[in-house]
Amino acid sequence: MDGLVLYGRPGCHLCDEARVVLERVGEPFAEIDIETDDALHAAYLVRIPVVVLDGIELFEHFVDESVLRGHLGRVTGR
Questions:
Q1: How many whole angstroms separate alpha carbon 24 and alpha carbon 31?
Q2: Are 49 and 7 in contact (CB under 8 A)?
Q3: Which among 47, 43, 49 has a CA at the least distance from the CA of 30?
Q4: Which of 12, 22, 47, 48 satisfies CB 3.0 to 4.6 Å to 60 for a cystine?
Q5: Which residues 6+ apart lie within 8 Å of 65 measured at CB?
Q6: d(Cα 41, Cα 78) in Å, to the nearest integer?
Q7: Banded pLDDT at 78 (limits 50, 70, 90)
Q8: What is the pLDDT of residue 1?
Q9: Domains and CATH numbers, the chain
Q10: pLDDT digit string (tens) for 19-58?
């Protein structure tokens, strides 16, 4: 999936924290609940939240806002 994507699940406090960072940077993002797919659940359960930009995993567990902004700046030309 292209663009910015947050893989997580309901009730995950780290996912909630990552979502706040993604909302703060202001770039639209998709949120994927790993509990809706067995393969995603198996792949990401111990790693969530996982943030992906244009198919490249940037972060797991924690999102560094300044690093994320740097990646977005290179992709979007900001």
A1: 15
A2: yes
A3: 49
A4: 47
A5: 21, 24, 25
A6: 34
A7: very low
A8: 66
A9: 4-76 (3.40.30.10)
A10: 999 999 999 999 999 999 999 999 999 999 999 999 999 9
